[in-house]
Write a structure and sequence with these properties.
Structural class: alpha+beta
Shape: globular
CATH class: Alpha Beta
Distance between the termini: 35 Å
Number of helices: 5
Helix content: 25-40%
Number of strands: 7
CATH topology: Aminopeptidase
CATH superfamily: Gcn5-related N-acetyltransferase (GNAT)
Radius of gyration: 15 Å
Strand content: 25-35%
Length: 159
């Protein structure tokens, strides 16, 4: 058996309005199904969402690159004066199932530490096994409880 190769390091850069089309491209059927919101309805809605998001000092959106190629995105929504933040993650369809999500989460931890965040929180659908697996490998605790109708779970990572 050959050794498993780990993905190259992921570089996170703050998103700009110029990243709108790439970020919108991440919303394929799989991402829409996994999302609580269902994703943006069209590019114009997404462009406006990104404009509003980039203006919010408590939201930090990053484009993730591997060897200079955009492979995904991550977001931190900061609450309680930096004590905790929710994590949002989306890997480009062509790069899924390669460990990229875990690599993005690990890179995102460095950004969270810079923001003095103590706890990262990930909320996902109970049937989103891929995300649960990635967050578990990245060191997040097991789902702690179901929220709302019981179709959601919460995973935490203390930094």
């Amino acid at each position: 058996m050959e050794p498993t190769q780990s993905p190259p390091p992921i570089v996170l850069t703050p998103a700009t309005q110029g990243d709108a089309e790439f970020l919108y491209s991440l919303w394929d059927k799989t991402a829409r199904t996994a999302s609580f919101s269902g994703g943006p309805r069209d590019l114009d809605c997404h462009v406006q969402w990104l404009k509003d998001t980039l203006a919010d000092p408590n939201r930090h959106v990053f484009v993730a690159t591997e060897r200079g190629i955009a492979v995904g995105a991550a977001r931190l929504d900061v609450f309680d004066v930096g004590r905790w933040a929710t994590v949002s993650l989306n890997v480009a369809p062509a790069h899924r199932r390669r460990g990229i999500g875990v690599a993005i989460l690990r890179a995102l931890e460095a950004e969270a530490r810079e923001l003095k965040i103590e706890t990262l929180r990930a909320e996902m659908k109970l049937d989103n096994v891929s995300s649960q697996g990635a967050f578990t490998v990245a060191g997040y605790g097991p789902p702690e409880w179901s929220l709302g109708s019981g179709s959601r779970c919460l995973m935490l990572r203390r930094l």
